[in-house]
Structures are given as structure tokens and as C-alpha cells.
Here is the input.
Amino acid sequence: MGRRRKQVVKIVRRTLPELYLCPRCGKNTVKASINKSTSMATVICSSCSLRSSFAAKSNMVSVDAYCIFVDHFYSQGNPEETAVA
Ligand SMILES: [Zn+2]
Here is the structure.
């Protein structure tokens, strides 16, 4: 009687930012983020300051943005010039 079961709900959240490998400096310091209100994806390397920003699709996740960033880098060599202000 009066038995109560305590439900322990564990919420595991990844609070650490996901970092990716930079195609220019080779360090694991690239951070990709997507601004859902502006639908813009921004990818920045905190080591060599290589960065790119472009329009993001609604279902895009950060790793997709990173893939486009790498693609830009290898196809054009300078993603900074493709950055949309
Ligand atoms: Zn870099």
C-alpha cells in the first residue's frame, strides 16, 4: 500500500558541439551550425578561420552543411569567396 514507483527518466543530451575535420588545416576544429530562422548554414574552422555560409534546406543537419562546405572547398578552393553576406 502506498507504494510508489519512482520513474527515473534519464535525458541524455549532447551538449558538446560537434566538430569536424577541416579540409584546409586538417584539424578537428570545424563547427557547422544552421540558423533555422534565416535558413542559413554557417561552417567555420576555429583554427584557420576558413568559413562558409550558404542557404540551408529545412531538413538539413549540421553534418550536411559540413559536407557542402568541404565540397565547396575542393571544387573552388576558396569557400570564403562563395560566402553569402
Ligand atoms: Zn582549418
In short: Residues 22, 24-25, 27, 45, 47-48, 50 surround zinc ion (CB under 6 Å). The longest helix spans residues 62-76. The chain has a mean pLDDT of 85.
